Structures are given as C-alpha cells and as structure tokens.
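Fold this sequence, please.
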Amino acid sequence: MTSSSLADERSKRMIHTAGCIIIGDEVLGGKTTDTNSAYFAKFCFSLGMNLKRIEVIADDESEIVEAARRMSEKYDFVVTSGGIGPTHDDITYESIAKAFDLKLTLHDNALQRMKALSKPHPSQPNFSYDVPSPALEAKLRMIRLPIDTTRDEEGQVLFVDDQLWVPISVVNGNIHILPGVPRLFTQLLDGLKPRLLPRLTDPEGKGIYRLLFSTPMAESAVAPYLTELAKKAEPKGVKVGSYPRWGKARNTVTLVGRDKDFMQSLISEVVKNVDGILVDREDEADEPGDEDKES
C-alpha cells in the first residue's frame, strides 16, 4: 500500500486511540502553562477515545519530525498544539511537512478567509494584502500548509468554525495541527467534533464510566487493598486509581471502565475496604476545617 493510500485509510478508520503533541519552548521553559493537553484529555474521555500519550516537545525540527511520525503510526487520532504563528520560531508546519516529504503550499481558501475575518493590528494601520511587505509575509507563513498533492485536497484542510479563518491542517490522514492559543485550540477542537462522531465506536463516551470514592484513609493504608482490587478489575478492562489531595483530609479512589455492571458490583466492597463513600465530586465529602493528613 502506498503512503497516500495509507493516509487515506488513516483518515477514515475508526478512532480508538489518541495522542497529543504540545510544541513550544515556552512550555518547556516554564513561561507558559499548558492547558490544552488537559482540555484534550477531557475531550477524548467525553467521546470514548483512549488517550494514550501526551508529549511536550521543543520548537525543534528533529523533535517534531520524530514525534509526528511515531504518533501518526501508533495512534488513530493525533493533535498537535503550537508553533503555527507568524514568527521565525513557529516551525510546526514546515517540520511536519518534512516528516512526510511534503511541500508547503499557500492555501488560497485560507487566504480569502484571513482577508475576510482577520482585522489589521492597530500597530499596522497601513497594512495591505496587495502590497508586498515583511508583515504580509509573516501572515502568509500561517497559511502555507503541508499538502499531499497525490491525494484529494478535501480532508487535508478543514475549516470548522465560521467565525475563524484558522484552518486545521490534517497530515498523513490523522495528524491535526492546531494553534497553541488556548481559546483557538478549544474552539477548533470543539468544531472538529461533528466530523469525528461517525468514526467513534462510543460516540459521546456513553460507554465509559467513572466512579469516585472519597476516603479519609492515607494512600499507604489503602495501597495493599487497591493492589488486589486491580488484579481483579483489570482483566475486566477496569482501571483502579488512587489520588492524594494535598491539603485535604480525604483522598480519592477511582474506578474507570466500560463494564458498568461489574463496576457497580464492586461499590460496596470498595466502600468497606477504604472506609469511604461514593461521590460525584472529589470535594463532596470535605468539611470546613479539614486538615491535611498523611497521604
């Protein structure tokens, strides 16, 4: 099968697994706090997708090339965040193009949308799309997209929000390149949802269940029981989790899986062994004045 045929197959296959690549020196350097991966994790859970990996990498061509190739091969649905702005260090498009031997192409529809929906910055009152300038070149940098000319362009560039000119570039059939700006990332990801639903085995995540138990016991105290519980639960596809809540008197134990009946059959057992209660929110059983205890 040719690389083009593989890309076409990836773009249509059912989505079971997902991966996320956060790209940015500013995240690794501590200047910017990444919130996009957390939003993506919730997005995947709500749609029944199994998010397998989140990576944060530098604005470095070799790092982006390696991560893009590996994740595209391994996961059904991949998103990247960051590195598609107008400056010299925004190299995501060119790096992912290199990863799959593609050329960057100025996308005319994206240009027309940019002209219609993007207002000139107050510092550029004389900016014109008709007059060559460094500012124009910087803007065009954001719509030179990796395009596989051996494939139909439909599906390689998506516009999912009528209020935004920003495209979602789809490379190798399953890598979706999104901006790092949180407002744009979330808006575009939400706009992508209707296109994903037909490819999901569990649309809306209705087959994934999460049970929360609030316990006053330290993690070290419940660890032996949870180890035995996990041995019993994991063959049923149910994951057992334990999460300390620093500064609070109560910790949280979770069950996550698809076998609702099996999970419900464990409730009384878990409640008894962790001296806990079933809750809807982690803080539901907190009381004013609760003090931190050993976790």
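The mean pLDDT is 93. The two ends are 53 Å apart (CA to CA).
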